[in-house]
């Protein structure tokens, strides 16, 4: 630590204030280009900003209170705070530094877990000189910027695949005639701790790609196995379009249906079909329960889907496959980028790793 010339041990309350967000109407699904943040991140858009960017948003209410960053001007609703520095600091460095703070461990003692300005202000922080802050933020930001670019590619691919799927001439087929749902049970005792595990929280809403997934280190109950290229379909509340492509083999919650095309060359077409509004509507209509609708393979296999005619199938699958391969590669790259960022973060913030060495590590994966 003797090399850390100019680094200061202080508290967040010494270098910044927390300012309250403001209530806002009609931001969900609204137009505008100003992001609106709540305690868990972006929640909508509006026309006019409350704060200039860049800025850091800190969750105020709820069991999970995240820390979020906005490069652009933004609005914060009344479930969150935004950071107001008392002297000049790099806001993206502040965002990364706060990733190491236990925001969710701060509890006001009220019925709803909450962050108070007093408890936040007491959190210790090691502050490097401004040029060092900027350099740290640049290294970590480069990794996150690449992750964001890959995520944007996946979002654009969603729209492209759905548009292509709606174009071709089709015949109606029942899903049970073109796909199966293999039920390969996995006992906790046979699970590798590093194996990919997918729960319903990792199956994105209206997102075809598995962009997140945990490891199976804490598995204590029976699960189902899936293979690379299987389609994972969430049983609970299917109206959220919880349907994703599995980029590699792993295990999943039994609240997820593993769907596998009988023709392995038609995986991308099956993915597009299962995420279509028409299929989701049929499954929702057949689902059991009103407060928590739940589907089954029986319901899904009975749904009717648009399927390409045999003479067109190969060409359609080829076009969609090329998009799926590009996105799968980008999603897998994001795992490497995120792992590198997470490894560098505490080392950079503590000064144990200097920027020049972190740049070399980041360059290896960028």
Distance between the termini: 29 Å
Topology order in helix (H) and strand (E) letters:
EHEEEEEEEHHEHEHEEEEEEEEEHHHEHH
Number of strands: 20
Helical run tally: 10
Given the helix and strand composition, which structural class is it?
alpha+beta
The strand order across the widest sheet is 12-15-18-13-14
Mean pLDDT: 91
Descriptive account of the structure:
By secondary structure, this protein is α+β, with helices and mostly antiparallel strands. The protein is built from ten helices and 20 strands. It has helices spanning 12-15, 91-98, 117-121, 130-167, 175-178, 267-274, 277-286, 297-302, 310-350, 355-363, and strands spanning 8-11, 16-20, 34-38, 41-46, 55-59, 67-70, 75-76, 80-85, 124-127, 170-174, 179-180, 185-186, 196-198, 214-215, 223-226, 231-234, 243-245, 250-252, 256-261, 304-308. A five-stranded mixed sheet has the order 12-15-18-13-14, with no helix packed on it. The chain has a four-stranded antiparallel sheet with strand order 2-8-5-6. β3 and β4 form a beta hairpin. α4 (130-167) packs antiparallel against α9. The longest helix is centred in the C-terminal third of the chain and has 41 residues, at 310-350. The protein is elongated and about 70 Å long. The two termini are 29 Å apart. The model has no long low-confidence stretch (mean pLDDT 91).
